Amino acid sequence: MLNISHIRYCCLLPLLLLLLLVRIQPVCAQTLQVAADVQLQMTSVHALSSEAVYTVTNTGDTPVSQVSFLLYPNQYGELSQNLPVFAREWIYPSGFSPGGIKITSVATATGDHPLKKSFQPFQMGEDHIPGFIMTVLLPQPLAQAAQTQIKIGFTVTVPTRRGRFGYFDGVLSLAGGWLPRPLPVKAEFDYQPIPMALTLSATIPAGFGGFAVNRIFVGREKAQRIEVHGSHVSEATLVLMDKMTYRTVSRDEGDIHYITNRYAGNVNIDPRIRISPQKRRQATSVANRIRRTFGIVDDVRALFKPFGLPKRDMFVLEIPTWDRLSQLSGDVVILSDRTFEVVPYPKALMFHESDVAKTVATAIVSASTQKKEQAAFQFVAEVIGYHFQQRYIQAAKAKREELAQLLRFLAFNPYVDNLIYAPQMPFDHAYLQSIEEPDAFRAELWRTLNQLPRGKRIVAKLTDLMGKEKLDSFFDNYLKSDTPFLRYLDTHIENATRFRQQWFGPYPRVGYALGKTQSRKAGKEYVHTVEIIQSGQPIVEPVTVLIKDLRNGQTRLQWDGEGTRKTLTWQSKARLKSVQIDPDYRLVETAKVQGHPLSDNTRPLKLRPPLLTDLLIWGDSVTREPFMLISFSFRRKYDISNSFHATGAYTPRQIGGDLSYFRHFGFNRTLNARTWYAGPRLGVYKYLDATATEPGLHKNNRYTATLASITMLAGMDEREFQLDPQSGKAFQISLGYWIGRSEIEDTVRYEDGRPRIINDTVQHAKGSLRLFKVIPLSLGHILVAYCGISAVEGEPPASNLVTLSHQQILRGFDIGETYGRVGVYGVTEYRHTLIGSTTLRFPMRTLLSRVQGVLFTGAGSASRPQTYRSLFQPDRNFMEVGYGFRFHMLLLGAVPYLLALDFVVPVFPRDRRYTRIDEDTDDVQYYSRAPFRFTFGVTQTF
Predict the structure, then answer these.
(1) Percent of the chain at pLDDT above 90?
(2) Residues 756, 750 contacting (CB under 8 angstroms)
């Protein structure tokens, strides 16, 4: 017998689910209609002064007592802590430049009754934007179908920034929104502005042309007044260029306009001929980029032809926006001037093309979704855009390889390794298979600052649910129907409510892992069992497992995702070789604090290519002797706890190498590195004789020796890298023991004149401590400080005594001058960007990325080789100052390396002479120290 309370709860459950579903939907029905008349004055490219009159009509069925406005520029008032370190140098080329919007007045249209206003911050997760929402209280509630006018005066500060909102390289981009944008009467998390009828009147400076809302304006010698009218404007796109050029090609589906501030040359495209992706030339110039883009637009339009979408012109704006390769601004395609050039390989062009194709497809379909979906049109248009991106790739018959496959031959470089295994570059969404594309820059406000899904996630999950063929007909039928997308979704897929609950909000926190795996023989074959464990939020999604045996047999098994644990079985003719969860990278897993999120998805872990961990080649203008050091790390894929290292070195005083093992622990610095490490190092080096002419060396230290060593090292490194350290600290401590045989020339010689060699056992100990600190002053300006101490105990050969003369310590002194039994030092460097991103190219696809200047000073003291007590004596104290250049290069368009050139002046000791011992007589002689040195070479950027 049913209890009445049970019936009550059963009735309430669907209602609660419905309320939850309404809350997580990315859209809601608007209840206001707005027309805006904006008068804009530009006092400079960084300052706007404006007045806007908003005519607000209540289209809802309840009175409205207040109207809220979105103040988009205020998100640039302070440097976002969520912005990755690597992105700061890309987006803010001259240090952080704040932007914002200031409201100067709010009144009725007649100006007689100033209105009450208040400002609220935006707060979600880690995002906090002061004054992001302005609420205006109306003098009396606005009844249904009633109308009122609000006049708002405001000023806008435009930052120096590569992006949709900013001024850089002669381009003023206000593509993200620059005027107060009215918000609907909305749900708590819906900040999607209302599309409005817009009339814009503006005076633009002399020499500037550009684009406003839906019209192109050619630059003139004098300032010009422009007027623009838009009927349904979601973003008041305004882009001005000081050297604007544009090209237009007429097509039956609507003209294509390409606007840029780069010289485009002659771009002649026969309107009757479509350009196939396979035959397009590599985009190495603006003209070729335009040619490629026209071809992409044509091909995408051809995909939509069967659906009879309305004819539309296509506006493409190329600006220096470095947060995404391409993106929509209202109905306008914003194209980065880095498109087709980030990874400049012919095989990589499909990455760039497909990204542009996705944005073009979204723009094409947005007009029809706008009528059908109303407030939901942006989200739905993006979903369709991602689906037709896949059709574009399929129609192009191009193999879209992973970045890891393209750059495999360069994977020895840590920078490339980070791109493949822990993406740390802009545009990584274009190169990786992951179905989730978080926007680090949070510029798309309708997505509620990155909390709501991109269309790619929805398309990927629909593909998992129904397969590619059914998905094609699913979208085809939607485009031909008048049914809104969410209602259409409910009627065409099973468990639609669960699907929307799982995937229409923030991505679920979930992880997968391999449990027990085993092979057991059953007759002539083997039965393999593989357990999969799911943890985190309870979601249902298909999970694919790739199983291989020792005879190269393999199979793919799939779990539907129901429950938290599943055991899969496969039978083959050989024992189990390997198991991998998600071979196609269709799952998004929550990163672990203490490991890589995929470290438990593959068994066993595969070996990676060797990784270059140290590279140093340098010399100076006085001794002209080369110093070379190279080190490689060997580890397994996803294993950030264990690594082996092999090092080789050659200098005028020693040659040899060592092997080491490090155990890494502590928190992750990246998905490739942990903070702490410790382990042993075994080495074998031949230490060459430091001849008698070396200054300050006793005879007891002058001999050749071959020594083996064992050293224990421990350290910590929490520095944050872009191409070189940007912030953080590091230290390393080491203690080692050397033992081997010496080769000392006896005074007695053989009959043929050869010296007789006396061998003896040599042993000594050596320890060191090094501290390193990077202090970011502002973007492009860094202070680096490091110091250390080293000491040796015993009677080592001179070549293994402590020396301060090194590329990373004191560069202005002979290596022999600073030999000692103990040495201490400290160095400070002020590094500043002289030239930001450049396009200066060299052979072998080498690009000059940027140029740094380095002002440095170093000081230290080294005891004499015979005693510790001479430390800090006046003649054993050394100091230098210098200035250098760091030329950051990209070899083959992807591998960074660093050319260093330093000018160094020794300033202490003041006595410009130093002593040397005559090789024959042992008499002390005095020599003049070089007044300055140039050091030059290749050093590492990692």
Answers:
(1) 40
(2) yes
- Under DSSP, the state recorded for 623 is T
Rounded to whole angstroms, the Cα distance separating 745 from 726 reads 50
Instruction: Read off the pLDDT of residues 151-178 as tens digits, 9 standing for 90 and up.
Output: 999 999 999 998 889 999 899 999 988 9
Backbone angles phi, psi at 424, to 5 degrees: -135, 45
- Residue 576 carries which side chain, given as an amino acid letter? L
pLDDT given at position 25:
40
Q: In the predicted model, is pLDDT for residue 284 greater than 70?
A: no
- Segments in 536-638 forming alpha helices (H): none
pLDDT category at 924 given cuts 50, 70, 90 is low
Tokens of 17: 């689910």
Answer left, alpha or beta for residue 397, where phi above 0 means left and psi between -120 and 50 means alpha: left
Structure tokens at 906: 């020794």
Residue where the block lists tokens 């934007």: 129
Lookup: tokens for 789: 């101490």
What confidence score (pLDDT) does residue 111 get?
74
> Residues near 55 by Cβ (< 8 Å), separated by ≥ 6?
34, 35, 36, 37, 147, 148, 149
Query: Residues 194-207: what's their mean pLDDT?
Result: 91
Instruction: Report how far residue 617's alpha carbon sits from residue 807's, in angstroms, rounded to the nearest whole number.
Output: 9
Closest CA to 581 of 608, 565, 600: 600
Determine phi and psi for 842, rounding to 5 degrees.
Answer: -130, 175
Distance CA 54, CA 521 (A): 78
| DSSP three-state, residue 778 | strand
Residue 816 has pLDDT above 70, yes or no: yes
For the chain, give the mean pLDDT: 83
Per-residue tokens: 493: 């897929």
Per the structure block, which two tokens stand in for 173? Answer: 């981009």
Across the range 566-583, mean pLDDT stands at 94
Query: 720 - beta bridge partners?
Result: 727
Comparison of pLDDT for 928 and 534, the residue scoring more = 534
Run of H or E residues at 470: helix 468-480
Q: Supply the pLDDT for residue 26.
A: 40
**Secondary structure (3-state) at 278:** helix
Task: Give the residue among 231, 274, 471, 490 at the shortest CA–CA distance from 367.
Answer: 231
356: helix, strand or coil: helix
Are 157 and 99 a contacting pair, CB within 8 Å?
A: yes
Taking residue 726's Cβ as centre, other Cβ atoms within 10 Å add up to 18
pLDDT of 749-793, one tens digit each?
Answer: 666 666 666 678 888 999 999 999 998 887 778 899 999 999 999
Bond before 306 cis per omega within 30 degrees: no
pLDDT in tens, 515-550: 999 999 988 899 999 999 999 899 999 999 999 999
139 Cβ contact list (under 8 Å, min separation 6): 108, 113, 115
**Closest among 297, 327, 314 to 367, alpha carbons compared:** 314
Task: Name every residue whose Cβ is closer than 8 Å to that of residue 198 and which is 6 or more positions away in sequence.
Answer: 35, 36, 38, 213, 228, 229, 230, 233, 236
* C-beta separation of 112 from 139 below 8 A: no
Count CA atoms closer than 13 A to 135's CA, side-chain side: 11
- Report d(CA 521, CA 517) in Å as an integer: 14
CA–CA separation, 828 and 531 (whole Å): 55
DSSP class of residue 806? S
Residue 648 bridge partners (DSSP): 630, 657
The stretch 269-282 carries a mean pLDDT of 54
pLDDT band at residue 57 under the 50/70/90 scheme: very high
Q: In this structure, what token pair is assigned to residue 151?
A: 């006049």
